[in-house]
Amino acid sequence: MRQDFSSIPHLVIVLTVRRVMNESIEINSQLIDEAELDPDRSVGGDFAGQSEKSEGARKVESRRPAGLLTEQQLKEFSQRSDAIALVYFLAHYCLIGLSGWLIWIVFPTLWCVPVLLVQAFVIGFLFSPLHECSHGTAFRSRWLNESVLWITALVYVVPPYFFRYFHLGHHRYTQVPGKDPSLVLPEPASLKQYLWYCAALWFWWRNLSWIVRHAAGRIDPATSTYVPKARLHLMVLEARVMLALYGVLALVVILTGYGWALLLCWLLPRFLGEPVQRVLRVAEHV
User: Fold this and answer.
1) What's the pLDDT tens digit per position in 3-33?
2) If you compute the radius of gyration of the chain from its CA atoms, what whole number of angstroms results?
3) Cβ contact 55:42 at 8 Å
4) Is 245 part of any domain?
5) How many domains would you assign to the chain?
6) Would you say 268 and 115 are in contact if contact means Cβ atoms under 8 Å apart?
7) What is the mean pLDDT of residues 93-113?
8) Is residue 143 one of the residues assigned to a domain?
9) Looking at the domain assignment, is residue 226 inside a domain?
10) Against a cut of 0.90, is the pTM above it?
11) Is 174 a domain residue?
């Protein structure tokens, strides 16, 4: 008797989405505290600049500038608004949608090239909302901040919570060799090092390795220098959620025949836009 397997992909999608929802609920029930977003606070709860607890460790001071603004000025600049942030968020993603639609319309003519580059530029600058949401400074409401963090991280292809701790470690010891987990370039850097960094091939290997290894439960021991031990399991959960969502998306576009659209409107522009961000990182840090 012939069996009908046509419903198997749909069953896989349903089961995967259910698994994602369950793990997302677990993640959201263990959101990090606001205090953990402070880049001056060390993983163990002490403040950066204090001597290391391990015997014989070299004391390293934070390179974050201090005293540039008065307390009142800092308070004024730190005001958060859901409405203003939502305007920026929606405008950014509407622009991505518009550029994607234009790519769809003009493909496969030569007009696709400039539109593709515009899309690469716009998607690349999703680092801005990713960065602000990782610090918890984009929205007044915590749930909006975390939702946009997740949405943007999925499009940007970076694990959101891991990036948050990784980036806070970078802020704590910016450009300090051996301490900064995201050291941009050694000082001084050669032209070869600069070109390699800006090409961003290493960036993709690093990010994809994070997701795959974490999903498999393999976390680099060095991660414990900036991710609290109590939060390490969240790095595994978020990676599994991301892989599941990407898997569902891949299955959907394969079944519907729109894989090329996903490639042209998202993946290729995302890849092409990263070197621009690398150039900016060098300009900011070196």
Assistant:
1) 454 555 555 555 555 655 555 545 554 455 5
2) 21
3) no
4) yes
5) 1
6) no
7) 94
8) yes
9) yes
10) no
11) yes
